[in-house]
Amino acid sequence: MLSLHRLPGVPTAKPPLFPSTSTFTHPPRRPTFLFPQSKTLPKPPKFHKSPTALLQWNRKPQLSGETPRVVVVTSGKGGVGKTTTTANIGLSLARLDFSVVAIDADVGLRNLDLLLGLENRVNYTALEVLNGDCRLDQALVRDKRWSNFELLCISKPRSKLPLGFGGKALIWLVDALKSRTEGCPDFILIDCPAGIDAGFITAITPANEAILITTPDITALRDADRVTGLLECDGIRDIKMIVNRVRTDMIKGEDMMSVLDVQEMLGLPLLGAIPEDSEVIRSTNRGYPLVLNKPPTLAGLAFEQAAWRLVEQDTMQAVMVEEEPKRGFFSFFGG
Ligand code: ADP
Ligand code: MG
Predict the structure, then answer these.
(1) Is the minimum distance from the CB of 244 to ligand 1 under 6 angstroms?
(2) CA-245 nearest atom, ligand 1
(3) pTM confidence score
């Protein structure tokens, strides 16, 4: 069984992902030396929620904030799941009937097209648009499954970031997307390259909000902490985090930090907690994002719920895993 804990300063999530039925146990060991500034949170109260609350997810979420919502998906450490998150949250938003443009800003190491299964349809990139070699709509690749989802790649694979291509060029592209005849998209998601060099600075420039991806390990957390500071310096105040590759068995064995620990260390609102799931790797290799899988997998559902929260600018409560989930899919939700 899993239990939930309310954190001070975090708006109430609705509905909770993991209704609580068991008692809180002390969080596993965590390296406090890394984050001397992080505050110790008081022990949160327990609460109980019926699984029927989950039925609320059948309504369409209310879009909060001005459109287009320009959201950069970033991390400190590489390989933590930025591209996986961009693909899955992007398609979830499209399924919720919002128009989405996903920009692969990972110059030279682009792979969002592969995850989406659109690699054979990318004929032009943003660089050709900026050079005047093609129109913007020629560089936008429309997904055949969800026509309100489009992909824009910055450059061809293995190319280098050209001199002069920077934040201003990306702002120009975002402005061009806003003024298209078919209307401004609801969401522009920017898949950020790893690291904190020029590519990162370029990718975050047009964004008003950020999704910070981290895994529950100390190296990713230290890098995430650094990136949070850089985002704030750039004026991005709306930063939410997704904790990816969470393993309940390891948390239970005190071999992995819990989501609650991660939230306590980074002090960021939580958009979602995505379990480690071999289906992610399978879906990556098939070019078929996880959220489209039938029946849905746990990681796919977690991405969908994160997309829902993103729309409503909502957050969830941190999760403390205490026992293995029971057999069956709905047991994961405490049913
Ligand atoms: P990034 O864009 O940050 O470099 P990716 O999205 O490319 O990271 O993910 C890196 C690898 O991790 C990929 O092989 C992906 O399939 C795998 N991965 C990401 N999230 C999960 C998860 N929740 N469970 C299992 N594997 C995952
Ligand atoms: Mg990537």
Answers:
(1) yes
(2) 23
(3) 0.81
